[in-house]
Amino acid sequence: MTNKSLPPEFADLAPFLDWALATADERYAYRRNASRAELKAFYDAILPRTEAILALVDQYPLGALPEELHPLYHLVLSLAEVAPHIELYGGAPGVPYAFDETRFVATHGAQDTALGLSPTAA
Amino acid sequence: MSETVHRWMEQYPELGSGPISTEPYISPEWYEREKEKIFHKVWLCVGRENELPKVGDYKVKRLAAADTSVIIVRAKDGKIRAFHNACAHRGNTVITETGEETYGGSKAAIMTCRFHGWVYDAEGQLKQVPSEQRFYDCFSKEKNGLTPVHLDTWQGFLFVNVAEQPETTLAEFLGEYANHFNGFPFDELDFGFTYYTYVDCNWKVAHDAFAEAYHVDTIHAGSFPNVFSTGLQNVKLMGPHRTCAVCLTLGAKPTPVSGIANGLAGASLVSQRGESMLPPAINPDKRDDFAFELSVLFPNTLLHISEGIWFTHQFWPIAHNKTLWEGRYYVKAPTTHSQRWAIEHAMTLQRNAWLEDTATMEDTQRAMQSRAKVEQHLQDDEILIRHGAVVVDQFVNA
User: Fold this and answer.
1) Arithmetic mean of pLDDT over chain A
2) What is the topology classification, in CATH, of domain B44-174?
3) Residues 6 or more apart in contact with residue A92 via CB below 8 angstroms
């Protein structure tokens, strides 16, 4: 069960709330373990709403996003993670012809991106 | 400049044009000589001053190829100094390391060894020894401070040299390379992402994989499919260092998400940009297809600069066939959530391209170790690799 929620105007994106993940590490892992169909459905649902989501979150200063908008922002951050796979990699969940992704460490990987911190902040 | 197919050989005939031996990539003995003649002797780039903003902030960097770990710390006088991370008591590390890089800080600007509580200040002086009276007359705190390591800076970059007496100053070591990059706003573009991994290959295999643009059309057919290499321009060899412009033709139409992201922040290598922040020596002919400056700061740092972006790769040898790779990507700090999102997208694409770059390295190492081929052939646009091999050979045989 999830307690994440979305503003009423984005309620139709609720089926995708599992993609509302706070950290780069969580988003990359979820993308890697998703099916091709899940990636495509997520991309198709979020892409047409991307500019509206970004306009809404930009009503607040970076780092001061109200708690209730975090899931929506996390959703669109997952689109940043997923987009290359639909737009460039033929829908493949992994990066093709690549080094083992699980061996790459992102030092900022555990940080909640919605907090607007420097990637080097602890 | 000649535009012939062999123009770099014509410009730098002293490098030769023959095949390059693979032995330096696979020989443990050669690696021992590289440690002694290169990594124990030259200036190594270990970070940026702004990683240590406050008095007492420190970073411990492991330097396996120089057989030590270095504490880099900002003292009460505001100066940054470097010391070996070794306690004068029984040689334990003073700061307990948690990995290749350990960050921390102390408001009092002191460092305490966890083993027996010896306390050093950030000037390296031994300040306190528990039960000091039980040591003998021959022991004095004054003579048992931390062992200093030479440290100097250029454009906000921190360099250390572990030699007791470095053969050159940092300025002499950098030479013309420093002039080439002076003035780029490294400090303004300080929103930096770091990725790292261990790759089972020689550090030069990793260097070589990044030090040419010949691979762009094949290796990056996935992440940068609308980008085609138009080759290197402005190759300049400067002592042990080297630089060039990587020129790429961009496809006309970005993908849907790239299109949105590019409109929000010029954070991607393949987005369009306006006025130049580049120093005058970079892209001097103002070519439209200039993508980024690719340079090698000898021995193990690749520095790339472009409009609104800079990034580095560093290859830290762990063994003759094991390397710590660190990739760092810097942009201007975002001011809005949408800019932060666009940067996330750019960083994701760049990470994926780096995953493509690193994909060949372990295969190359294994194939080289088979000795099925004992030399490699380089084309004219792979001149940075040739220069690297020549310079390493000069140092090792000096």
Assistant:
1) 95
2) Rieske Iron-sulfur Protein (2.102.10)
3) A36, A85
Query: B177-397 has which fold?
Result: Naphthalene 1,2-dioxygenase Alpha Subunit; Chain A, domain 1 (3.90.380)
Q: pTM for the full model?
A: 0.94
Q: Where are the domains of chain B?
A: 44-174, 177-397
For residue B231, which of B210, B253, B248 has the smallest C-alpha distance? B248
Whether chain B has a CB inside 8 Å of the CB on A46: the answer is no
Find residues 247-266 of chain B whose CB sits inside 8 Å of chain A. 255-258, 260-261, 264
Which residues of chain A lie closer than 8 angstroms to B324, CB-CB? none
Calpha distance A31→A81 (Å, rounded): 7
Residue contact A107–B335, C-beta within 8 A: no
pLDDT in tens, A71-86: 999 999 999 999 999 9
Q: How far apart are CA B203 and CA B209, in angstroms?
A: 10
Query: Of the candidates A76, A116, A119, which has its C-beta nearest B193's C-beta?
Result: A119
Q: What is the interface pTM, i.e. ipTM, of the complex? A: 0.97
pLDDT at site B2: 46
Of B192, B195, B361, the CB nearest to A104: B195
- The CA distance from B34 to the nearest CA of chain A, in Å, is 27
Pick the closest to residue B349 from A92, A39, A84, A78 (CA basis): A84
For residue A84, give how far its alpha carbon lies from the nearest alpha carbon of chain B (Å). Answer: 7
